[in-house]
Structure formats: C-alpha cells, structure tokens
C-alpha cells in the first residue's frame, strides 16, 4: 500500500509547496493537496502534513521532511512486520 501524504494549500507560506513537489516526484507515494485539512492552528504556526492521516508538524520545512521520512520508514517497518 502506498503511503498518502496530504498537504494544505493554506500552509504553503511555510515553504511546504517545494517539499510537496519533491514528494510528488516519487511514484511510491500518493501526494494530495487540499484547500483545507482542518488543522488551522498547526497550519498557521508551523509547516505540517498528514501522513496516512497522522499529523506531522515541524519547526521548519527541512525538519518536516525529516519527520515525514521517519514516519514513512515507520510505516514501511510496520508492513514488513505484518508481511504485507
């Protein structure tokens, strides 16, 4: 199963647009941009994304990328354990 990474259009002022484009280039991920994800507090304050429905927040875009990568590795490890 391909991980789903969701971004909020309103969060692009933090620089998440560049990260979203970078992740879209990887065909192993489903990357979706929404007008609003309903996390207005996080959206206003920090760069964030949803990875398989779980919120991933960071102080800056570089840290967000690292946290998304970490979350994707966790998901991959879980599927490896389950044999899927």
Automatic annotation (TrEMBL):
Recorded superkingdom: Bacteria
Pfam families linked to this entry: DUF1450 (PF07293)
InterPro entries, per database record: DUF1450
Protein name: YuzB family protein
């Amino acid at each position: 199963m391909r991980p789903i990474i969701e971004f909020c259009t309103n969060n692009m002022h933090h620089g998440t647009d560049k990260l979203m484009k970078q992740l879209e280039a990887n065909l192993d991920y489903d990357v979706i941009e929404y007008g609003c994800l309903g996390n207005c507090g996080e959206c206003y304050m920090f760069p964030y994304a949803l990875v398989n429905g779980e919120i991933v927040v960071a102080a800056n875009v570089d840290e967000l990328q690292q946290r998304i990568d970490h979350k994707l590795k966790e998901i991959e490890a879980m599927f490896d354990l389950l044999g899927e």
